[in-house]
Amino acid sequence: MQEEPHKGSASAARSYRLHGVMVPARPLEPALYLVATPIGNLGDITLRALETLAGADVLACEDTRVSRVLLDRYGIATRPYAYHEHNADEVGPRLVAALEQGKSVALVSDAGTPLVSDPGYRLGQLALSAGCKVVPIPGPSAPLAALVGSGLPNDAFLFAGFLPVKDKARRDRLGEFARVDATLIFFESPHRIAATLAAAAEVLGDQRQAAVCRELTKTFEEFRRGSLAELAAHYQANPHVKGEIVLVVGPPTEAAVPEIADVDALLAALAQEMPAGKAATEAARQTGLPRRDLYQRLVGMKARDGD
């Protein structure tokens, strides 16, 4: 990768500003550094992250304009290069080549921890495949901030990223998590949160506890807690939502898994009153079993019965 020299003296280039004082950054050994950056409040950056951003030979980021705000805040002169989903095939190999030449490469996402729901995962794979060292620089994380602020159990949790956009696929995906004995964490957009909560209430159970965590660490940070039914009703009545959202859903309550014969009887009864898809959704809500499995079972029952 072609890299332009730092402006000014070497000491100025390899330094960061903290409380008005320029602090020299120590040289970094050749490696890919995955640097977590603030998800809102720029004060959440770690000292190790600042030193890494200032000391890296190459800095790759999703959006140079976003990263420049952070760099300017802390007086870091390192020039950021764009690495995102649209240029990953071209830029990724060039970054790995820089590593192989003995350079240090720092990777940041627009916010939070790199590789979590962003194309940095591909760069990490390339670096490891090339035998390069990969070093995580931990720090801010939206899923963890939402989890600890939600008030829901955190002894076991599953981060599931974004749910599918289409309703059927979304419900199928939720059905796969119905009996996972852990708190579930999802990213969601503000214009889909009402539909997602409605689907989650049907598939996971309307009394299951959850929290909608919005604008984490920012000025208008909000935690709205309640059952899925209560949250779905609130956002259906208040659809104009802004900001980034993390949805946290508590684990299922203890319940006996129904016998197969009982499940078949329930499916048969529901199928007489509604289409197969809705019957599977209702059965999933009542039993806690995955909707996809119930739908396939119902289709098989109909085939055996010759319907």
Class from helix and strand fractions: alpha/beta
Largest sheet: 5 strands, parallel
Helix content: 40-55%
Distance between the termini: 63 Å
Uncertain ranges: 2-12
Q: How does the overall form come out from the CA principal axes?
A: elongated
> In what order do the strands lie side by side in the largest sheet?
5-4-6-3-7
Q: How would you spell out the order of helices and strands?
A: HEEEHEHEHEHEHEHEHEEHEHHH
Describe this structure in words.
With 307 residues, the chain is α/β, with parallel strands linked by helices. Helix content is 41%, strand content 18%. It is built from twelve helices and twelve strands. It has helices spanning 10-13, 47-55, 64-73, 88-100, 120-129, 142-150, 167-176, 193-204, 228-237, 260-271, 276-287, 291-305, and strands at 15-18, 21-24, 32-35, 58-61, 80-82, 105-108, 134-137, 157-162, 183-188, 209-214, 222-227, 245-249. It has a five-stranded parallel beta sheet with strand order 5-4-6-3-7, sandwiched between helices. It has a five-stranded mixed beta sheet with strand order 8-9-12-10-11, sandwiched between helices. β10 and β11 form a beta hairpin. α10 crosses α11 (276-287) and α10 (260-271) crosses α12. It is elongated. The N and C termini lie far apart (63 Å). Residues 2-12 have low confidence and may be disordered.
